[in-house]
Amino acid sequence: MASFAPRRRFDARGLVIPALIVAGWYVVSESGVGNGYVFVTYDRIWATFAAMVADGTLVASIVGTVLRMAAGFAIGAGFGLLLGLATGLSDLAGRVVSPTFHAVRQIAIFAWMPLLTAWLGIGGQTMIALIALGAFYPMVINVEAGCRNVPGPYLEVGRVLELSRWQTIRRIVLPAAAPAIFAGLELGLATAWLSTIGAEYFIAAGDGLGIILSASRMRGSMDGVIVGIVFIGLVGFAINRLLAVIARRAFAWRGEAAR
Known about the structure:
The chain contains 11 helices and no strands. With about 260 residues, it is an all-alpha fold. The protein has one domain (about 60-259): MetI-like fold (Orthogonal Bundle), CATH 1.10.3720. The model is unreliable at about 1-5 (pLDDT under 50).
């Protein structure tokens, strides 16, 4: 069955590079060839990981990061969906809003940090605002493009059936734009995840994987940094795969229609 997010079979060749990295790190750290501060041994990394699990730091950090990212992503993607629909469905809105939007989105997300900390303080609200910005921009761009690129024959069917504007949007435009909307969600989620880790690292308030990185760096604990990096990658990958599963199921009807 075809779908928007095709299922990929597991391929062991994808493990070659990670295996080489693990083996190379082991050789360098155990042989003493590299800098011992940077290339910490697996024994130290494992001991730090076990300590973080035992005292609850790792679990609390994962939960804190995921909840923080979810809140910021929901806000940013929600507003991005609304603005993308407005600029994609209305030529007037596009002409009024798009120039300013495309100028503002050139500003790096973390360049807003001084203003946001002045407005919202140093804490969770500023982090969520930065995460929301990360999700907002890709969502607007993809939703607008999806609405504007609906195939002409689809719209012609709406005219033949004498559908109202709202019926055309609901029955034709939105279903046709759905793949672009999900693409915006996927890109927005990736950017929101990066923004989450960056915001936690720089602001370092509460629990979070980015805060593990910041605290470990301040203590000179490279083993803590490695544990944080590994779980940032694992959790981010899991979130991405979850969205892929949702997209695959949501677009199963496209595969059925194509058969």
